Amino acid sequence: MSLNVELxxxxxxxxxxxxxxxxxxxxxxxxxxxxxxxxxFPASMDEQKKKLIGALSLVVTSLEEPEKLGSALRELGAxxxxxxxxxxxxxxxxxxxxRALAQVAGDAWTAELxxxxxxxxxxxxxxMLEGAEAA
Length: 135
Hints:
Distance between the termini: 26 Å
Largest sheet: none
Oligomer: single chain
């Protein structure tokens, strides 16, 4: 599968100025719909929110360097094992992330963006799970 790098980067640039809102929507939705995962996160979410934006920024800026990105995502997947993340969490997180992106993007969110981000998250998930399995 080839990812639409230009579309992913331009759409992320659209929502990045609203990063605070993005992480609020994401974590509020995640915890309200999946309260069982709240214990996997620290009590104070300030650093965690920065980490999420940092990870998304890394992915989007590294799309043109797949080797570097793959290595970083495998390491991230391995670290998530120690946090208590399991394979079943990944599709939940992906679905909520896409909904949060759509909410923050508003009218700019299109079916084409939904597909591009869905494909990207699927690739991210697969690589992170490789890292998790190796951990």
